[in-house]
Amino acid sequence: MRPLCFVDTETTGLDPDIHQAYEACWWRDDHDDGPTTITLPHDLTHADERALEIGRYHERGFSPGRWIPSRWHDAGLLNLALTGVTLVGSNPSFDAEFLRRLLGDAPWHYRLINIEEGAMWLFGWDRPGGLADVSHELRRRGYEIPFPDHTAEGDVRVTRTVYHALRDERRRLPR
């Protein structure tokens, strides 16, 4: 089986053709060392101020010329970490497209796991909710789920916890 890799990016906007990821986090389920978060090279030429506000870009001290220290700075190591894994995320196709543009390739397996779609079917919703909606519903059902915070690492932690809670919730259903 392919390793699962919980992933999230923070970006300068919603359009991968003109915006960029400035922060990425991943947490592979075959590594016990927890999440890895990196700051990515970027510029703000086409940045959407609303996107920067949501991710608290300025508040958290990001800037195009100032790199926040992180464990891995090399896109080659990010590429290695994502090679052959199945990406799991809250709308992972969004993150995958930004990562593909950054890396120039998609080293992960082509199937992606979207926890929002999984929750939609499990909860009987007509449309997928966001990470906040899914985590709220799971907390309502008694799970201890952290709150999403629009940081790459914080949202990876929530996504991973939600994924495992959804699996547990599914196991509770009659077969």
Low-pLDDT runs of 5+ residues are: none
CATH topology: Nucleotidyltransferase, domain 5
- Quickly count the helices: 6
CATH class bucket: Alpha Beta
Spatial order of strands in the largest sheet: 3-2-1-4-5
What number of structural domains do the residues give? 1
Major pleated sheet: 5 strands, mixed
Helix content: 25-40%
- The Rg value, from CA coordinates, equals 16 Å
Order of helices and strands: EEEHHEHEHHH
Question: How would you sum up this structure, described in words?
Answer:
This protein is of the alpha/beta class. It has a single domain (1-175), classed as Ribonuclease H-like superfamily/Ribonuclease H (Nucleotidyltransferase, domain 5, 2-Layer Sandwich). The chain contains six helices and five strands. It has helices spanning 49-54, 75-82, 92-103, 115-123, 131-140, 152-172, and strands at residues 4-11, 21-28, 36-39, 86-89, 113-114. A five-stranded mixed β-sheet has the order 3-2-1-4-5, sandwiched between helices. A hairpin with a 7-residue loop joins strand 2 and strand 3 (36-39). Helix 4 runs parallel beside helix 6 (152-172) and helix 5 (131-140) crosses helix 6 (152-172). The longest helix is centred in the C-terminal third of the chain and has 21 residues, at 152-172. The mean pLDDT is 92.
